[in-house]
Structures are given as C-alpha cells and as structure tokens.
Amino acid sequence: MEQRLILVNLLIKLGVAAAVSSALVRSVEFKSLLFREERSLRQQIYLILWIGIPMGLGVWIRLVTPSFLAGDLSFETTILLGLLGGRFTGMVGGALITFPALLYGEWATLPFNLLCGFIAGQLRILAGNQEEIWSFSPFIDLSIYRWIRRNLPTPRRFDWQIMFFVTIVGLRFVDTELFRLLPHSTFTLESPKLWVEALIYATSIMVIGTELKIWNGVRIQIKLEEQERLLLSARMEALQNQINPHFLFNTLNSVSSLVRFDPDTARELILKLATILRRLLNSGDAFVPLREEVEFVDNYLDIEVVRFGRDKLRVVKELDSGSLEVMIPSMLLQPLVENSIKHGLASKIEGGSIFLRSRLTDSQLIVEVEDDGVGMGSAHLLEKPTGLGGTGIGLANVAERLKVLYGDTARMTIDSHEGKGTLIRLRLPALHSEGSIPAALHEERSSMRR
Predict the structure, then answer these.
(1) Which of 82, 226, 304, 320 could form a Cys-Cys staple with 117, CB 3.0–4.6 A?
(2) Mean pLDDT of 341-363
C-alpha cells in the first residue's frame, strides 16, 4: 500500500475512534455501565455488546470494503475493554470483535485478541487505583518526566502509566511480527518505512488515549454534577436542621419565667419547642404539603407570641383550603416569618400583626407573608437572617433555593415601605402530589433522604 494511503487511513482511524466513542457515551445506559468500578456478569456482557458490536461492524466493513481499512479498531478496542472491564470483558469482547475476521479466514486474530484482552485485564488489576486508568495520556515524555521527579528523592514502584504505554507498544510489536509470519491469517497496517511504522504505533496509542479522554471528560462532568447536587443537598439539610442557640436560649428563658406563675403555658411551650426540634432533627423530606409547613410555622409563632406578648404579636391566617395540599419545599416559610418579626415588628413599640395568605391561581400557588411593622431598609434587604433566630441563612437563601429547585417557574418578590410594613410574595408551580414533582426535584428529595 502507498505510504500516502496509510497516512490517510491513520487520520481516519483517529476520527472513527473519536466519533464512535462520542456517540456511545451519549447513551445513559452505556454511561451507567462504563463508569462502574464493579460490574456483575450481566453488566459485563452488556458492556461488551455496547462496545463490541459497533467495533465488530467496523471489522466487517474493512473486510467487505478493502479501500476502507480505518474502520478496524479491534486491537485498540480489545485493550480498552480489558482495561475498563477486566480479563473476562477483554477476552470475550476481543473474540466478539474478531468474529467477522474469523469468517473471512483471519484465524490468528482470535488468539492474539484473547492475549490482548487478558494482558489488559491484568493491567487493570495492577493499577489498583482506577484513577490511574482514566488519567492515561499518550504523551509518554510527560509521564517519564513525572516518574523521574517522583523517584529522585527515594525510589518507588514503576509508574503504571509507563507500564501501560510499554504494554501497548509491546502488543503492537507482536501484532506486527504475527502479520509478517502469517500474512493471510491476520491483519494490520504495515510499512517498510521506519517513520511511517512509528506513526502506526503512535496512532494505536492515540486511539486508546483519545477514547479514554472523551469518556473521562464525561465522567468528570458527571462527578461535578454529583458534587454540585450533594452540595445543594447539604445546604438544604443545613437550612432544615438549623437550630440557632439564641432562639433556644430565649425560648428556655421564657419557659423558666412561666414555670412558677403559669405552668400550663410553660408546658405548652415546651411541647411546641419539642415539636420544632423533632421536625428539624428528623425531617427527611425536601417537599411537604403547605398544611404541614403552616403547622410548623404555627408552633414557631406560638413561641414568639409568648416571648413578645399576646398583645404585641398577632397572627392572622387567610389560607385557601385548596392550597393546603400543594407540595412546597420544606422550611420555606419560617425564615420569611422570622424576617417579618426581626425587621418589621421587633423594634415597633406597640407591636403589630403578621398575615399568612395562600391561594391558587392559573396553576400557581401564591403564598404571602406580610407584616405591618416598620419596613425594611435597603441594608436589611441585603442581610441574610438565619432560620430560627440568627444570621447567615434567610431571604437570600430562600430566593436561591427557589431558583435552583424551580428555575424560572418560581419567583419571590419583596415589597417594603418604611413605616408601613413588608410584603413577601412567593409564586410557585402548583405541585399537588409526589408524582407531579419534576425528576430534578425528585433527585434532590432522594438525596436528602440518603
């Protein structure tokens, strides 16, 4: 074959490897199989079929269309299967890929691919840390440089990256010698020119490295998304489980002052505090019916009424009965109510009222928390009051939480007038049951339970 045609086929080979690996990794099922560290026998077979069938088709195309030799990636794919799935996956996958070649008389490809699958599977065991596999780079000079730097102070074990590189080169050399001994029983691109032969070796390394890099890029993206989801879950859980010591201290002081002259009220206060603590510590639900959220806020307000005095803090509820079963994020209303007390009524000598309203309109749930206090200035609007009496989490967190959970389908607005009060209005999608919660919200709910 002309050297120019060999070079063209080498370039096409790289393109085919990138195209096939990119197409495969678009499948959710394939990703779930590929990125597992441990696989059952059935999962190994599925992984073999996912990769082996398109690559076997490439071998068949090479046999029926002699002008298109770049479709044969059997050598590189067998090594990849062994490396990612182990000896069984590598050997069985290599046999599946070479099946079309066997039908056309290339019998030596079967034992050679079985050898490649076995050795690659053994390398997977020697790697120990699976990150070594995914971080493989075809640029061996950098690996050698890093290995020398690590071993200059004190000698360590041989670098796995270099070992894998040498293994690919060694198996490629065996393939070359096998083709020279049995030219009609196997297939490989060969050239009498040394520089072209070096490019053939380099292409095999680049094909393996390219497929690993493409898959690893998707793997890293999945890990980042998982870390982002776990971070969100941790923040949600922190908001739900926030127990501010000042709130607890003030409540216990109120109980202490009531024990002697009003023991019944003190007992009722303790029961409400216990209910709040139980909800905060044991809640595993990211979404609850509005009815449950209002009950939780009632317990919180009952405690605040005792602390401020019944003549200084009044609560008025105007709740549409049809809205009470709508699912909303847990611990959504309490920070809003607390904000009204802290910034609206606490500094008002004569006290005031808090209004809780809810209604359904146009497939939306509208919830309002309003007070007739002193209003919030721009500084107060920028503050982040925490749940249950401190600073750090509050209005900003509620707004961010709504944005993450609902996107553009939810909105929080704040309308505050100095000396007149503040109105906080939430517009949420009306989710009437667990089945109506979108998949993304279900993931957040499940992660909270874990």
Answers:
(1) 82
(2) 85
Last residue of a domain, one of 175, 197, 231: 231
Q: Domain containing 27: what range?
A: 3-231
pTM (global) more than 0.70: no
CB neighbours of 10 closer than 8 A, spacing ≥ 6? 70, 189, 199, 200, 203
Split at pLDDT 50, 70, 90, the class of 228 is confident
Nearby residues of 96 by Cβ (< 8 Å), 6 or more positions away: 48, 49, 52, 53, 56
Asked if residue 53 and residue 172 are part of one domain, the reply reads yes
User: What is the dihedral angle through the alpha carbons of 37, 42, 43, 44, rounded to the nearest 10 degrees?
Assistant: 70
> Does 141 reside within a domain?
yes
* Residue position matching structure tokens 């206090």: 373
* Same-domain pairing of 249 and 268: yes
CA 56 to each of CA 38, 49, 387, 413: distance values in angstroms, whole numbers, following the listed order: 25, 10, 60, 59
pLDDT tens digits along 34-90: 998 889 999 999 999 999 999 999 999 999 988 788 889 999 999 999 999 999 999
How far, in Å, are 226, 237, 398, 424 from residue 286 at the CA level?
Answer: 17, 8, 13, 22
Lowest mean pLDDT segment, chosen from 97-106, 119-128, 180-189, 276-285: 276-285
Phi and psi at 315, nearest 5°, equal -120, 125
Rounded to an integer, what distance in angstroms lies between the CA atom of residue 137 and that of residue 153? Answer: 24
Regarding predicted confidence, which is higher, 232 or 164?
164
- Characterize 171-184 residue by residue with b for buried, 16 or more Cβ atoms within 10 angstroms of its Cβ, and e for exposed: bbeebbebbeeeee
Q: What is the CATH number of the domain that holds 261?
A: 3.30.565.10
Kindly state whether residue 223 falls inside one of the protein's structural domains: yes
First to last CA, the chain: 61
CA pair distance 347, 343, nearest whole angstrom:
7
Total domains present in the chain: 2
In a domain, 294, yes or no: yes
- Residues 3 and 191 sit within 8 Å (Cβ to Cβ): yes
